[in-house]
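User: Predict the complex with NAP.
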Amino acid sequence: MQRRALITGVTGQDGSYLAEVLIAKGYEVHGLRRRSSTFGTERIEHLIFGDEPQLHLHYGDLADGNGLMRLLREVEPHEVYNLAAQSHVRVSFDQPTYTADVTAVGTLRLLEAIRDVQDDTGRQIRFYQASSSEMFGKVVETPQKETTPFYPRSPYGVAKVYSHWITVNYRESYDLHASCGILFNHESPRRGETFVTRKITRAATRIKLGLQDKLYLGNLDAKRDWGFAGDYVEAMWLMLQQETPDDYVVATNELYSVRDFCEKTFGHLGLNYEDHVEIDPRYYRPAEVDLLLGDSIKAYTQLGWKPRTSFDALVAMMVDHDLDLAQREQVLKTTVSAYSKAA
Ligand code: NAP
Ligand code: GDD
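Assistant: Here is the predicted structure with NAP placed in the model:
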């Protein structure tokens, strides 16, 4: 029988990669999308257009529990992947209540809907929760593993701790097959442009082509364990294929600073980052997470998962993609300028 999956956050970076992976595995894939005044489906366009769309989209919102319940009854998924969130750490300081409502209570709404539908139908729904290394915040040990205590440093981190523990609680209280992936930072050419890696690769490639002069950043000394999103969504799927639900750290076990990322990116383009990067205190955070480094030995031994993409390959992939975007922008600019001179 064909398995059905529902992905919340399908329009985001991870949602788009996960949808591709599940479709390739033969799933019927459904995705929750928010209503917006623009399409917002750039990352999944290749899956939703054409004679036979491979991905089925439904309007919904983690703020709307009744809608989630209705959707679960309609789709009857075997697996639900909860990737939706207000996922930007800096923004969570500006919108703490909204972040709590969506990123924390939104998970509870979805779990409640799953519990009700499962009780009514007697069919098991497996659940994946997108937990985050941001929960470790001001880390109490390094590297961080599943047993490391949480010390969140942002409204986003606090909301993710709530989501994590409520998922564990529903697993223990109601026997739900619910697992949490504690994923460390993962990036790709589809990464949102306000996260630091993509901000750097977009700006560096535009600087290379003379489309921009400077790149303004905050704390260059923050250190992260950066992997490739395409590798990490495989781990999500593997968690839901286990007989027993559990929680897993997913990371590369390698540490680089924001400065290292700049150096590598600009270096790839034959540039020196020190000539172009300037510090703007507006990008500092009220409370910073200085260092995140994961130990994913449990995912390796129990799921057979390990990252396939090196740091250098990740940077090169993002730079090459963004150089192509910048080149197109340059061509467009030249064409428009020629046209307006001729007109
Ligand atoms: P992302 O690109 O920011 O995508 C977030 C998704 O959530 C988008 O599809 C967004 O829809 C949707 N969303 C936001 N608010 C919503 C709401 N109220 N109702 C329904 N959908 C809503 O994030 P990502 O990088 O793919 O990350 C996926 C998940 O993993 C997130 O929960 C994130 O917090 C978590 N995580 C990410 C990382 C990482 O390094 N990427 C690491 C650990 C955990 P729109 O497109 O309409 O905005
Ligand atoms: N965004 C951003 N913009 N970050 C900057 C900048 C800047 O201009 N300058 C320095 N940084 C530093 C931040 O202070 C932070 O220490 C680091 O770069 C990484 O920032 P982000 O790329 O915004 O990611 P994040 O680590 O805060 O959060 C991401 O990873 C989490 C997992 O640890 C997000 O994807 C979260 O959703 C995810 O849970």
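Residues 311-342 form the longest helix (32 residues).
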